[in-house]
Structure prediction request, 130 residues.
Amino acid sequence: MAAYRRRVVTMGSRYRPEHQRMLNDKRWTQTKAVVWQRAKGLCEECAKTITATGRPLLVAGVDCHHVIPFESAKTQQEAEALCYNPDNVRLLCVRCHIKAHTQAKSHTKEAHQAREAERLARWASRHKKK
Ligand SMILES: [Zn+2]
Ligand SMILES: [Zn+2]
Prediction:
């Protein structure tokens, strides 16, 4: 377990302080332990791939990835529900983790901020006196 924790890298660690605090919480440690046990320490994405031998691809999992990023939650309660729910977390190898983030471009903080800005602009334009 200790060896595992040392190897865990957090992708895009430009977390806001309140999110960083959530990852320092013991509830996150517990969530990771549940995920780790469920995955038996193996990448859950690679395990879906069946090799030529008819067996799943066994690759050591190193990263815990949130399927729905908890940073996108609107309330702290919602963020915690996403962050500490093992069903929202996948144990992945580095390759699959990078792939997951590349595919989930629409979930990046930048995309989220862009959508927020757009919404604000729409709101402002509606309230602007002509
Ligand atoms: Zn993998
Ligand atoms: Zn991730």
Q: What stands out?
A: The chain has one domain: 2-126. The longest strand covers residues 63-66.
